[in-house]
Amino acid sequence: MLDTYEARARRGTPHAFDRAVLVCLDFGQDDFDEALAEFRLLAASAGLTEAALVRGRRQRPDPALFAGAGKIAEVAAAVTAGDAGVVLVNHVLSPAQQRNIEREVGARVVDRTALILDIFAQRAKSHEGKIQVELAQLRHLATRLVRGWTHLERQKGGIGLRGPGETQLETDRRLIGERVKLLSERLAKVGRQRDVQRRARSRGRVFSVSLVGYTNAGKSTLFNALTKAQSYAADQLFATLDTTSRRLHLAADVEVVVSDTVGFIRDLPHTLVAAFRATLEETVQADLLLHVVDSASPARLAQIDQVNGVLAEIGAAQVPQIMVWNKIDLPGADGALHFSPGIERDEYGKIERLYVSARTRQGLDLLREALIERARQAERGSGAGHSIAAAEATGPSAASAF
């Protein structure tokens, strides 16, 4: 019988919980190496140390153990050798698969969805952000309660909580349901407050711009460079969860409100998208999206597709976009610089893409010119000037991968 992670902790090795064995399987996808690199960055962003990496190749997941008995035995050996307390799996596991793997390896098993939720829980700072993360976690937990309560299936009466004959599993489901309802009502109230703020901006004819993009593409660094704000920016996934908005004076007749939002990621948990919908509506209601792309990433085209997929899911696919290829100061995978500051226009003369470096500020003057151009086009189209009287900047107001 394998040693359990609880037993190891009781023997005085709590550091094992900071050490993780990473499991990543190749099911024939073209971008496996990029997915593996992103998975390692996810683990580091969660504050975990990589004790070992177990990789493999399969045609399809094993119904019981996902990776198959032989590969899980390899994972168990890596857990023991690396004194690891957690196994991270870069895939979505069913509750049964998670339970079976934990039994075999003697360590806590966390799948991709739970890992992303945990990172969000660590990053959330604002009241609204914390509500959204807790709501997403509870919705995820509700689907796998059976994993934790298989030993309590018999009927048990409770004092104060359980009704006669109610099982522990039923009690937990009921309590989670009540908490989800309460949090949903709180988020709805926040959503109504956001609607009031948006209507005020609309009455003032304020041109609104939202930064969107894949996580770690440099949105917060670009936001700080444009607005001289002090939003948290770091080389890690989901450094920003709480949306921040600032006024930006661009010309004598042009002022806009720019919002920094959470980054997106491949296979973003639907529970997160649902929980953060109130915040993401800031993106849906924007006049212009600056789609920030990490130009140095070899997976940038796939990341663009992932972001556009999430934008379509939240109803923002029709919002006008300017693609901002960031990090042009960094070399690509071959070590060479591929881009220089510049603007690309479509066949109608409309700005389609910009090349900038938020870190070195290369091309930021071109980005400002692009914003002025788009704001003036919108002004001519509406026949109204842009006022910021009703658009006082908000601090971290709460919000998301996104």
Instruction: Give, in spatial order, the strands making up the sheet with the most strands.
Output: 6-7-5-8-9-11-10
Number of strand segments? 11
Major beta-sheet overview: 7 strands, mixed
| Number of distinct helices | 13
Structural class: alpha/beta
The average pLDDT score comes to: 79
Which descriptor suits the 3D outline? globular
What is the helix fraction of residues, given as a range?
A: 40-55%
Distance between the termini: 41 Å
Computed CA radius of gyration, to the nearest angstrom: 24 Å
Helix/strand order, N-terminal first: HEHEHEHEHHHHEHEEHHEHEEEH
| Percentage of residues in DSSP E strands | 15-25%
What does the model show?
It contains 13 helices and 11 strands. The strands form 2 sheets. Strands 6-7-5-8-9-11-10 form a 7-stranded mixed beta sheet, with helices on both faces. A 4-stranded parallel beta sheet has the order 2-1-3-4, with helices on both faces. By secondary structure, the chain is of the alpha/beta class. α2 crosses α5 (112-123), α5 packs antiparallel against α6 and α6 packs antiparallel against α8 (168-203). The model is unreliable at 1-14, 147-162 and 384-402 (pLDDT under 50). It is globular, with a radius of gyration of 24 Å. It has helices spanning 5-10, 32-45, 69-82, 95-105, 112-123, 127-142, 145-148, 168-203, 219-227, 270-275, 277-284, 300-313, 364-382; strands spanning 19-26, 49-57, 86-89, 108-111, 207-213, 244-251, 254-260, 288-294, 321-326, 342-345, 351-355. A hairpin with a 2-residue loop joins β6 (244-251) and β7.
Question: What would a concise description of this structure say?
Answer:
By secondary structure, the chain is an alpha/beta fold.
